[in-house]
Amino acid sequence: MPPVRSLKVFGNSVEITVDGAMSHGVTSVVVLTVPPGGGLPPHAHEFEDEMFMALEGDFELQQDGEWTPLPIDEPVFSPRGTTHSYRNTGKTAGRLATIYAPAGFEQWFEEVNGLSPASEMKQIASISEEYGVTIHTDGKARAAKAATLK
Asked: On the chain, which terminus has fewer CB atoms closer than 10 Å, C or N?
């Protein structure tokens, strides 16, 4: 299936393959191509459950501080409110599918598209806050509390 949109977020190539319009708000599917050592900072969603499935490469998933291998084609569920992250532990780029329920979080990827975590983390944290996402950097929450999902 060709992507609905292709973006670049935190150094990852992001393909939104199913968005809320396609699923009537039920779910969204995002496929990420993650370079070696790449991933996202630990974070938690207030509004969405998330499922991860490694498609290619070597990944680890962190949930509530514990890192575990993410085997190819074995989905792992991360309920809303769980602090989680992933990282590519391989020597080549890997592909990871993320599934969100309900839909809507794919819009976050669009809003942070192209922003640099090194120089624009405050803006990323502010956008994340609007989506009910708490980003944890250096052990501290960088964003919190959202009244509504955009």
From this structure: N
